[in-house]
Write a structure and sequence with these properties.
Elements: H1 21-26, E1 34-37, E2 42-44, H2 45-62, E3 70-74, H3 79-91, E4 94-97, H4 104-113, E5 118-121, H5 123-128, E6 141-143, H6 149-154, E7 172-177, E8 187-191, H7 192-205, E9 213-216, H8 223-229, E10 237-240
Parallel strand pairs: 1-10, 3-4, 3-5, 4-7, 5-6, 9-10
Antiparallel strand pairs: 1-2, 7-8
């Protein structure tokens, strides 16, 4: 991991604000308490939601109707990862966590298997994918450390955050590969409803309070980590390393 430390139109109602990750996010609009913290910056919850919504707008602009709305993320634990989890929740997309410890044919097979429309990565991640037939052309890579990335996101920052009308508790939010201890890795499906329920139940189980911060040292392409940072767009704040 890097040394960095660390979501359109009129608002669409989301059934049961606590039943989807999108609903939990929208409930944080106007909340000026910390929502995401990195080594260099703290975002309020309101900023987390608006930044996620801007990325959702960019994803919608690039969406293809002939394929599942799957977005691969190949990044270290940086704030952009969390913000794209929020973008997918609001936009009705699925985030596929790409495992950077995979290489060659193994990595190629995993990426192709998930039928991605877009890949969000950086220069180091793009280099890891060089020469692989992953089914995603380079013009559908979003490089977060590219000079044009910030302006492309900013172009979608004006609209009030909203959930895509398609979002329900059954909407798939994550495709996370298993570790492969019983054979080839399998892409486990995680719906917004399931993740919202996990967040509620585990917050109660571990007695997590509003002012506490969920620190995430594990890689976000893994279920253990993403369920902790990605599933809680409600108190407490999240911090990633």
């Amino acid at each position: 991991m890097t040394s960095q430390v660390p979501a359109h139109a009129a608002v669409v109602p989301v059934p049961g604000r606590d039943e989807t990750i999108a609903g939990l996010l929208l409930a944080r609009l106007g909340d000026d308490r910390p929502g995401l913290r990195s080594r260099d910056r703290t975002w309020t919850w309101d900023e987390v939601v608006r930044e996620g919504a801007a990325r959702a707008g960019l994803a919608r602009e690039l969406r293809r109707a002939d394929r599942p709305f799957h977005i691969g993320v190949l990044l270290d634990n940086v704030p952009e990862y969390i913000l794209w989890l929020g973008a997918a929740a609001l936009g009705g997309a699925t985030i596929v966590g790409i495992n950077p410890t995979r290489t060659g044919a193994y990595l190629e097979q995993e990426v192709r298997h998930t039928d991605l429309q877009l890949i969000v990565t950086d220069a180091a991640g793009a280099k890891l994918l060089d020469g692989l037939d992953i089914g995603v052309p380079r013009d559908r890579f979003l490089l977060v450390d590219d000079g044009t990335y910030a302006s492309r996101v900013a172009a979608h920052a004006g609209a009030e955050p909203a959930a895509d009308p398609s979002v329900t508790p059954a909407t798939q939010l994550l495709l996370l590969f298993t570790s492969g201890t019983t054979g080839a890795s399998k892409a486990a499906r995680c719906s917004q409803g399931r993740l919202a329920e996990l967040g509620r139940n585990n917050s109660a189980k571990y007695d997590i309070k509003r002012d506490e911060i969920s620190y995430c040292p594990m890689p976000l392409f893994h279920g253990n980590a993403s369920w902790r940072c990605g599933r809680r767009p409600s108190p407490p704040a999240a911090a990633c390393a």
